[in-house]
Amino acid sequence: MMSFSFNGFRVGISFVMMCIVYKSAVNSLPELSPQKYFSTLQAGKASLAYFCQADSPSTSVFLEELNKAVKPLQDYGISVAKVNCVKEETSKYCGKEKDLLKAYLFRGNILLREFPTDTLFDENAIIAHVLFTLLFNEVKYITTPEDLRNIENALKGKANIAFSYVRAIGTPEHRAVMEAAFVYGNTYQFVLTTEIALLESIGMEDIKYAHLYFFHCKEVLDLTQQCRRTLMGQPLTTVDIYRFIKSMEAPLLTEVAEDPQQVSTVHLQLGLPLVFIVSQQATYEADRRTAEWIAWRLLGKAGVLLLLRDSLEVDIPRQANVAFKREEGMLVEFLVLHDADLVISYVENNTHIEETREDEADDMEGPDMEMQDDEVAESVYRDRKRQLPLELTVELTGKTFNATVMASDSIVLFYAGWQAVSMAFLHSYVDLAVKLKGTPAMLLTRINCADWPDVCTKQNVTEFPVVKMYKEGENPVSYSGMLGTEDLLKFIQLNRISCPVNITSIQEAEEYLSGELYKDLIFYSGVSVLGLFSPTMSTAQEDFTEAGKYLKGYVITGIYSEEDVLILSNKYTATLPALLLARHKERQVESIPLANTHAQDIVQIITNALLETFPEVTVENLPTYIRLQKPLLILFSDGIINPQYQKAMLTLAKEKHLDSVIPCWLNLKNTPVGRGILQAYFEVLPPLPVLVVVNLHSGGQVFAFPSDQAITEQNLLLWLKKLEAGLESHITILSAQEWKPPLPAYDFLRMMDAAASQHPTRKGPEGMKETDIQENDKQPEDKSAARNEWIEL
Question: Model pTM?
């Protein structure tokens, strides 16, 4: 299955490139005539030919990239030649100009595939596309979870799988996977995808970068059992993939009975540390089970060995149960770690590779990165060849805009085709269309403001991207949430109802508070808000109605103002006017008085109520909590936190002991940047979990909970009281410097002014200067575009 075409590829390939002439000398490329070139082609020989036609514009950039690919292709048995088209010789590859925009891949004299030349945009793309085509049996490209399940089931008990996700075909990561398949294609089945949904289906949340999984299917004999999966932690480079696969081939667990200082395995040769689980005869079986569990968790990160203490001639510290060897030649460290999770945390904290993926960016031959949105621009550049199902959204023009948005309830994306953030968000917008496909939702539309600026100006769109919702008889509503698929989906679903909802009976109010009335929307809004008012409280009702309209799309709000409202106020101990906050997950209803509270204050109250009591902090939600201007009480954890810690925090919060801080926790596996934060606090990564208080808004002090104390309600409360009394010393003080972009944004107007100053001043009619014309042409300010923002949601 995996060897036929692979061996055929090694016999020989011919790859023919059609292009425009490049007049500069390229020493690496031998120059041949068409007749001479074709006469050299033989079965079993490989060749990459570049045909050039005289008297045509040059393509120096492409030729430079092709020249870079010469040596790597030769390493794979593919020679490269430049073929000069001459009038004396005829060849279909020297034909019409449109044929020069394609590339042709041959094996011998047989044409395998043709490519548009713009897909071969750099050295990596050329090599990746050629190998991808030739290794069509060794690398299966899939698009659905079902495809992956079928391959996995077919290979159980037979072979292991190397499954990789790359963001686009032709990227450096794609090339690295293809080169690995060239080496290991006979041993493992390589599977490739560029579909985000497929990666999400196997539980991967961080899809910012390329990933590679190793599926251990060969040892699985039960077809109902899932293959174990090991995620490669390093960036996808050829060398790192090689090291990762070699570590997969090493024994899972090795027993040794010699001085650990003298032990050497393939892991050390690959740059991975060794972890020795110290065992003795009395606990051998339990120790071995523990060692195997740790070995699976550290697979690809470290080698795990079972060290038999009873058989050793060297002394090991009596209390030590773990030994750690960082690299060849270094002294072995003896440790006392009584929990398997502590062993794993210690290894990962002391061998952590920063997952900034700088190598991926360095390998990119892409656009100029000297701009404020460099990461966004990079992602757009990498994904530029990805085919989006744009047909799932309706493209609007100046002629069709009004007719479309008036005919049906519509979501309109206003974007600019030249802007990186717009094009990045377009991917999320299309992903939203995929999720809503086949559902009776709103019409999803888009308009490119670069093509139709007059339409966007009339809609008060002055920045990009912007999403607006249009409903018949209502003013357009602008979306102001995160630029992601899930947040936009929540906004659309919650806009299916008109808030605040008018509740007309006690029974309906109870159904509303229990979540039964809008149970299909509870997934998108875990809190329902009900305003209680007596019929005479017209001003308070107006303020609440205004707040409910402002929060539409972010939370479900309802209003009850019937004569029997006292039944609800008495039941929930609420003094009118009041808010009832129904938290559906906790099945709790709490009341908040609203006496003399204006609409803006109601928005703030509801917004704060939506925040979790003990949330997991992420890059996306951290600004929301920092905005509250309180110190952060952060529990750093390497994975899901201990339920006992969570219970302690929630109990203290419920008893109002944590009102002066914001209790939260950070999962280093979901948010790897947390490791860098801890290093800034401690210099050396401490054992996890670790609890700190960070006072960002007053002095920048960082305080650490004592590592020798258990995280319990009593210990926490005592420590916090010492902090308030000034009896605790800080471990560091954060600098007060501003967090600015690494490089300034381009000032295009200044650039235009500078360019204009290099030319003579143009005069208008009757000697009027250009600057005078510009001043007279100023348009009046659009007052309708201005609006008051209460709070950024």
Answer: 0.47
